[in-house]
Inverse folding.
């Protein structure tokens, strides 16, 4: 009887133990997607109303562009000036309401502009194509030394980064002179407020001067929505061709 109880206990223990499995081999096969592959009609029919609604929203004409806005230009481009100007214009009232201060400068990046705004009717789709990223507007408070650093960065980069509120001249020896903020000489020991994207505010595109900021205000306003809202507010796009950077 003693042996029977021991055997019964041992058997019960084995039967209650969960088996343990381990993956020893994984196999896969690449299946290419081609035009010959057609989705199931049930799925297509389910998606179609949503796709049609999105297409209708994106294709609605919001304004008119009197010219092609593109990225051509040595130190500034018409699309860059346009985007910097409207980002400044749309961001400033929000920043002023929250802080009782005003934005001085807008700086974006040339590489962030992904395509042109063609002459003719413009739509929300144009805004998504120009600015496909989920970047939002951020205002950084920068000491005057970093404003000079911004100008030197642009000269060294040799790229027409979108700029508003800041003008300067590139001297023959490649140094910066005649630097003005809102038409006035740079003031020492003053904080200037620069609106940019959250990506750049964190040092993206080697804009490390933003990491030296003394304050930061996230506006919770996507750059793409700034473009769309501007389109909705005007009948015809206004392109300010004021020279921001000159070279001797």
């Amino acid at each position: 009887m003693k042996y029977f109880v021991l055997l019964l206990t041992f058997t019960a223990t084995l039967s209650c133990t969960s088996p343990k499995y381990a993956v020893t081999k994984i196999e896969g096969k690449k299946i290419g997607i081609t035009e010959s592959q057609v989705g199931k009609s049930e799925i297509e029919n389910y998606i179609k109303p949503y796709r049609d609604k999105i297409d209708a929203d994106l294709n609605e004409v919001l304004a008119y562009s009197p010219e092609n806005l593109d990225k051509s230009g040595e130190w500034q481009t018409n699309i860059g000036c346009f985007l910097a100007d409207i980002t400044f214009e749309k961001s400033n009232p929000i920043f002023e309401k929250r802080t009782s201060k005003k934005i001085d400068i807008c700086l974006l990046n040339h590489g962030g502009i992904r395509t042109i705004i063609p002459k003719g009717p413009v739509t929300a789709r144009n805004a998504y194509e120009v600015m496909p990223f989920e970047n939002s507007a951020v205002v950084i408070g920068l000491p005057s030394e970093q404003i000079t650093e911004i100008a030197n960065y642009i000269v060294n980069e040799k790229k027409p980064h979108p700029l508003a509120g800041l003008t300067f001249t590139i001297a023959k020896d490649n140094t910066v002179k005649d630097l003005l903020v809102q038409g006035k000489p740079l003031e020492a020991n003053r904080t200037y407020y620069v609106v940019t994207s959250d990506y750049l505010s964190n040092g993206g595109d080697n804009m490390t001067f933003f990491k030296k900021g003394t304050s930061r205000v996230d506006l919770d306003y996507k750059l793409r929505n700034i473009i769309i809202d501007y389109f909705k507010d005007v009948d015809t796009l206004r392109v300010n061709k004021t020279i921001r950077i000159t070279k001797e």
